[in-house]
Amino acid sequence: MSDNIEKFRELLSKNTVWPMVYYFKFIIHNNQQKLDQVKELFADPSSITYNTSRDIKFISLSCKQLMPDAESIIAIYEKANLVDGLIAL
Questions:
Q1: d(Cα 37, Cα 80) in Å, to the nearest integer?
Q2: Ramachandran region of residue 83, left (φ > 0), alpha (ψ -120 to 50) or beta?
Q3: Edge-to-edge strand order for the sheet containing 20-29?
Q4: I need a labelling partner for 31 at 20 to 30 A (CA). Which of 17, 21, 52, 81 fits?
């Protein structure tokens, strides 16, 4: 995983002007506890938009946040990785 993080860090650092608005997208099982865990990742959870799957088993969450640097984005993904069953897109 650390190789992937390094590649992602390098990708974020190339030709990027900071701060920038970054678009996060996650998919999780429709579970209030998991939703709350994802909301805690963001400074402004009111900017999160939600869409449920047709069978309402899953929820996709999208959020645009102003991020000061690449490390802030990576930190959110590392915390998101701790949410059981979360898929980061």
A1: 8
A2: beta
A3: 48-52, 58-67, 20-29, 87-88
A4: 21
Residue-range domain boundaries for the chain: 2-88
- 31 by DSSP, 3-state: which? coil
- Which tens digit of pLDDT belongs to each residue from 78-89? 999 999 999 999
Q: For the purposes of burial, counting CB atoms within 10 Å of the CB of 3, is it exposed (0-12), middle (13-18) or buried (19 or more)?
A: exposed
> What tokens were used for 44?
């402004």
Class of domain 2-88: alpha beta
User: Mind listing the pLDDT tens digit for each residue in 12-40?
Assistant: 888 789 999 999 999 999 999 999 999 99
Strand partners, 63: 24, 48
